[in-house]
Amino acid sequence: MTSRADTHDLDKLRRWQRDLADTPAAAPPVFAIFLVGGEDRAAHDVFRAFRASFEESNLGFAHLVIFGQHGVSETAIALRQELGVEAETSPLLVLFSGEGSRPRIYSLPPGEGDGPHNGAGAGWREALEGTKGVIAAGLATVNGPLETLKHICEELLNQD
């Protein structure tokens, strides 16, 4: 039987693929993928901080997505493998920010953590500020991350 987490994340992956396909060439090369667990409240709060910032810059779902918030799903596990991160690691932010197809990986606070502003995984603040700089500079997507993410979505959806 398929779990709620599996159904939710697979539907989200399909939507993300459609939104990536519709992303214009002039869009900023900033893509943030959150890989969390249902109990990772502090990581969810970090996601909300990114979402607020991305909304201010008119960046939508193609640029910011979260997997696993309803529990570990097959999609989230497969996505971790495609992105080259271990399946059994703490919540992560996989961030493409700028040119190139290689992301930076940031550990996020697990569970309730110390809140999104303190403790382990506090490097996300600098990551968020960096994305704001890339967006403000007006850089456009030049293949790199967008094409990489389109390819990853295609690979994952072809596994079904």
Explain this structure:
This protein has 160 residues and is α+β, with helices and mostly antiparallel strands. It is built from five helices and four strands. Strands 2-1-3-4 form a four-stranded mixed sheet, with helices on both faces. It is globular, with a radius of gyration of 15 Å.
Using brief descriptors, characterize the structure shown:
alpha+beta; 4-stranded mixed sheet; 160 residues; 4 strands; single chain
Write the layout of secondary structure elements.
Elements: H1 4-21, E1 30-35, H2 41-56, E2 64-67, H3 74-83, E3 92-97, E4 104-107, H4 124-137, H5 144-158
Parallel strand pairs: 1-2
Antiparallel strand pairs: 1-3, 3-4
Helix pairs in contact: 1-5, 3-5
Sheet with the most strands: spatial strand order: 2-1-3-4
Strand content: 5-15%
The span between the termini is: 15 Å
Outline the biggest β-sheet.
Answer: 4 strands, mixed
Q: What is the average of the pLDDT values?
A: 86
